[in-house]
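Quick illustration, no need to memorize.
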Amino acid sequence: MFYGSVSWDPWLIVAQIVCLQCLYYLSLGVFLTILVGTRVSRMSLVYFFDYATATTSTVTGWSVIASFLLSSFAGAGFMLYLIERAKKCLDFSATVYIIHLFICIVYGGWPSSITWWVLNGTGIAVMALLGEYLCIRRELREIPITRYRSNV
């Protein structure tokens, strides 16, 4: 992993965006199944894309909120392996949440809940900052150099 002059590769960027988005929704689905699926009779896409389900007035709403926050933590871990650069984490985190916003608008209209906006703002901050922290720690590791020197 040497980061000298990196050529701009749009296909790599698109592939990273698609992979990160898919992994984000996969982890969200796992967390929603664990936390919300035990509370409701039938899981649906409403819990993924409808802003009204992220509410603080019910236990199910708190479970949805916890699922989204846990997915942002998982997204930071995914960025450690997919993106590998600390300076790109904010860009990819913002891309994930902008795509999520567009899907939510298409699915249920413009999100008018302040809870939804706070939740997604917190999610993007957690994903970007934790992803940057993890990538910086990886970038600052010492490079192991093996020595083929005989012990005399």
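Residues 11-138 form one domain.
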